[in-house]
Amino acid sequence: MSIEVVMTGTGSTKYGPSERSPADLAQLAVKDALEEADLRPGDIDGFVLSTQNSDILQKQGNPVLRFAEFLGLDVKFGTRTEAACVAGTTALKTGHMAVESKTVENCLVLGVEKCNELPSNTEVVSAFAFINERDFEAQLGANAMWHFAPYAVRHMHEFGTTEEQLAEVRAKNSRFSTKNPKAHFQKEVTVDDVLESPIVCKPLKLFDCCPISDGASAAILTTGENAKEQVDVPIYAKGYGQGMIPADVVSSIPDHSEFTALKKAARRAYEDAGIGPEDVDVVETHDCFTIAELLEMEALGFVEKGGGGKFIEEGQSDLGGEVPTNTSGGLLCRGHPIGATGICQATLIAEQLRNEAPKGRQVDGAELGINQNLGGPATNQAVFIWERR
Amino acid sequence: MSIEVVMTGTGSTKYGPSERSPADLAQLAVKDALEEADLRPGDIDGFVLSTQNSDILQKQGNPVLRFAEFLGLDVKFGTRTEAACVAGTTALKTGHMAVESKTVENCLVLGVEKCNELPSNTEVVSAFAFINERDFEAQLGANAMWHFAPYAVRHMHEFGTTEEQLAEVRAKNSRFSTKNPKAHFQKEVTVDDVLESPIVCKPLKLFDCCPISDGASAAILTTGENAKEQVDVPIYAKGYGQGMIPADVVSSIPDHSEFTALKKAARRAYEDAGIGPEDVDVVETHDCFTIAELLEMEALGFVEKGGGGKFIEEGQSDLGGEVPTNTSGGLLCRGHPIGATGICQATLIAEQLRNEAPKGRQVDGAELGINQNLGGPATNQAVFIWERR
């Protein structure tokens, strides 16, 4: 009889530039997660830490030992995971496996990132270049915009997708963000605001891009048995899929008209869960750029290839549509503290499935949700499926 | 019925300063591991990468996607682990959980490190300071010698341990290293050589310290079922234990007379495996300094606290003794490419349990072995128990 794994406690700090240290941010998120699950630090026997930039921005390797000390943990399994922007979800999966394999009972999965350590965003973006392939791309100034703009160009060319359709992603997510007091940005922007914002990397404009955020998010994973004592509404881990394609630089991506790695990850996750895209009630996706959310709608199977622009235009990803998407504001508005993002997404899905999201963001009767997270030039993708029972 | 996890393919490069890139080193180790298990890259569906310093020394984050590309892998689960010098064993455990939880069938666990990227050892040691706690220790020039010398001072003070006994650890391991063509150093040194070598951090001398090595090691973990088709002598994962104490800087370590975290890790591992120290035939331990091996004999329960010096002096950790230890030459002579070390240790235990170590290193009839790995100031410890059946 295999162990069922459940998300119980959840917690997040407000996202956005912060004066707090990574350890401070972590404490805040973990305190909330422990309280929600009615646990103390001594009850935690597994610890997976997701943080991307501590070596470079904090000049601090080996954070897992340090954070365990700060948090008062004595664990039977503990490690840090790192996989660029998808690390939060690989951390969740690592914690999931730790519980499922009976290595631990209560696993804290914590994502922490403090990106605003340098005087300007430009300097932070330069520092982030170390995530890119070194010998060709990083030297040339490669960055995330460089990786994602070609997807937009290609989709517009092949399917007639418009800049207005891309802008609608940000407009929708910004409307949700006004109801999320933890979001980095909480201001509504219109399609025209997006179109009039400065070009960053054609056709992506400033408001097509997510910000550089600080923040921490935490989730506690436990056994189905323990969960009964921890929370009223247990959220079950129902399926996981990851997919990579062998492409780390823009020139080796075989097809910019789709997220090929996500199609793989989604197929594997649906198979693992025994469900299909039609069963999904709510999703948090990795909308680091507006074009990303559009391609995610297609790769997750909510609309056919090429139909993403129309899907969004018709409001199918909005509340009341086919699959309400990024009702937290998404990376575009909620923010993107790199290693924390995947974990935050999962906690937001839990909030939805527990019917605890505020009015204007709650999806009525949501029972099954997905968090989808990506790393690198969208070529390493992970999908986690969660269910209320 | 729970899945049994087996180590099949194993591979390591020669350790020591190398002109090869991390990717090159990885290819060599992985090629050997795949051949040993009679697998191709396409058979691998899980990938855990352990590398410590790529962000700092190679200016390269997100190595997991890049290495998957180089190696031609298409995996259902993949991440990097980082936990300083113990990362190799947390990677093994992550791969173990991936197989045990049926997430994947054949998991490649790969450790790669290229430390010799800077003009001098002094510069490399300075770069490594980022692993140490930043606000107090790293600024003061903390390094591994600073962390381990107090253990030696304390043990000598409390139990009368001598510099000669410490030197005997290096002398023993150097004798083994002359029979290991992959070792960083392969030259026999005597107790007198050690005692006459320059002081590094009193009482530790140059030959009491392990070198700075490049290298890669790989292990393939699979199900008991698959293992039958891959190798003649399957090596079963029998137990795992990890232990931390809340101490990241030298001044917060409560007791320098022992490895308290290892006592915890060992207790948990023995419990998980249902065995005791008396059942262990051979061990590879984390002898980053001579004093470490001595304290490991005690914390692993092979000799009572305080008895480590005499145990070594009597040859109990040598071939023919109670528990032959570091028959590969250990970190002291084999070398210590940080993220690779734990994985290398496990492959060396597999070699022993398969009765494939060369004469002069093989422990006759060894059936059960341990690899023990530590991180930080010895306050994060992991023990993996392996068995031939």
Question: How would you explain this protein's 3D organization?
Answer:
The structure is a homodimer of 389-residue chains. Helix content of chain A is 37%, strand content 18%. Chain A is built from 14 helices and eleven strands. Chain A is globular, with a radius of gyration of 19 Å. The model of chain A has no long low-confidence stretch (mean pLDDT 96). Chain A is an alpha/beta fold and 389 residues long. At the A-B interface, helix 3, strand 3, helix 4 and strand 8 of A face helix 3, strand 3, helix 4 and strand 8 of B. Strand 3 (77-82) of chain A pairs antiparallel with strand 3 (77-82) of chain B, so a sheet runs across the interface.
Query: What is the beta-strand fraction of chain A?
Result: 15-25%
- Shape field of chain A: globular
Mean pLDDT of chain A: 96
**How widely separated are the two ends of chain A?**
19 Å
Classify the oligomer: homodimer
Strand order of the largest sheet of chain A: 3-2-4-7-1-8-11-10-9
The pair of chains with the biggest contact is: A-B, 60 and 61 residues
Q: Number of DSSP helices of chain A? A: 14
Work out the helicity level of chain A.
25-40%
Rg over C-alpha atoms of chain A, rounded to the nearest angstrom: 19 Å
| Class from helix and strand fractions of chain A | alpha/beta
Order of secondary-structure elements of chain A: EHEHHEHEHHHHEEEHEHEHHHHEE
**Strand segment tally of chain A:** 11
Q: How would you characterize the largest beta sheet of chain A?
A: 9 strands, mixed
Low-pLDDT windows of residues of chain A: none
